[in-house]
From TrEMBL:
This is DUF2089 domain-containing protein. InterPro entries: DUF2089, DUF2089_Zn_ribbon. It comes from the Bacteria. It comes from Chitinophaga varians. Residues 12-40, 45-89 form the DUF2089 domain.
Amino acid sequence: MKQIKKSLPLSCPSCASPLKVTSLACEACDTTVSGSFELPLLARLSADDLQFVIDFVKTSGSLKLMAQQLGLSYPTVRNRLDDIIANIEKIEKNIKIP
Ligand SMILES: [Zn+2]
């Protein structure tokens, strides 16, 4: 059977509000924990934004190096970081990211 890699849905497909975790399961012993848990801030970024943050940390925060690695101009990478900062601030204030 083909393994499908599912990405974590971040917002409600019906009303676009941020989703919460309500159930966690242990695959080893089948224990399930229920409740209402906020996703960690970084997990609430889009997959693309999160990858940028990971790459940013791995280059020790060098936008110059990131621009080289991504084949983009420094201002483009700088703008991308500014967008992610704005998205993080929206998440902190619980504003929907369009
Ligand atoms: Zn367990």
